[in-house]
Write a structure and sequence with these properties.
Distance between the termini: 19 Å
Oligomer: single chain
Structural class: mainly beta
Low-confidence stretches: 1-34
Mean pLDDT: 85
CATH class of the largest domain: Mainly Beta
Length: 233
């Protein structure tokens, strides 16, 4: 965290020094070092989580949302600086609303399908630290801030907090659910123009651990995430 703060201070100081100098130059006098710019280092996003591979009778309810934010180190690999990679660190909060209830039991957590009249909301909730890796292509230049981008890659997440929550007319129940897989990983694709960019992610491993079952059937939920992502600086 301290290193990140130092990097941000250096970036701000460089901008303070360079902007007045660039304002006094002409196009003919631009030097090569003026083009050593970086793009898209901070990101925020919002999305909708869709569950696949659900057992018969299990369906989604309400809005299963995703919120994410973080920092990505932009590393251009060519002289034009429109192709490169990005390595990052971020945070994500996810909710998955279904008609399946979870309860703690002496022999492990128990799951059942609920009738709509028996509950108001039932969800899994996770909070994760994420490590995104992107292969980046864009049409930007040092003085063009509106450009197309296609960023493809993968993301590894560590769930440091995973809970199940059930809300009924008679009250709420919530507990830390250790059936939620701690390490989650998948493929992602972000593309768009200027401010508006589509974010997609597909998990390569299940949301829950292998030994999690419902009525004798393994719960092998996989997540497809679709939303918007905004890059800054």
């Amino acid at each position: 965290m301290i290193r990140l703060v130092h990097q941000l201070i250096i970036i701000v100081l460089c901008l303070v020094v360079w902007v007045p100098v660039l304002g006094q130059t002409t196009v003919d006098s631009i030097q090569p070092w003026d083009n050593r710019y970086l793009e898209d280092q901070f990101y925020v996003g919002v999305g909708y989580n869709i569950l696949f591979d659900t057992p018969e009778g299990v369906g989604q309810r309400n809005f299963s949302y995703n919120l994410q934010a973080g920092f990505i180190k932009d590393i251009p690999l060519n002289e034009r600086r429109n192709f490169g990679i990005g390595l990052g660190l971020g945070y994500a909060a996810n909710s998955y609303y279904t008609n399946m209830g979870a309860a703690e039991g002496a022999n492990g957590n128990q799951y059942q399908i609920l009738a709509d009249s028996d509950f108001n909301r039932s969800k899994f909730e996770t909070h994760s630290i994420e490590l995104p890796f992107e292969i980046r292509w864009r049409t930007s230049t040092a003085d063009d801030y509106s450009f197309w981008r296609i960023y493809a890659g993968a993301k590894l997440g560590y769930v440091f907090s995973g809970r199940s929550k059930l809300v009924t007319d008679n009250g709420n129940s919530s507990f830390s659910n250790d059936d939620i897989e701690a390490f989650q990983y998948g493929l992602m694709l972000n593309f768009g123009f200027n401010t508006w960019n589509i974010h997609t992610y597909y998990s390569l491993n299940p949301l829950l651990k292998d030994n999690t079952i419902l009525n004798g059937v393994p719960l092998e939920f996989r997540v497809l995430r679709i939303g918007l992502i905004f890059y800054i600086l």
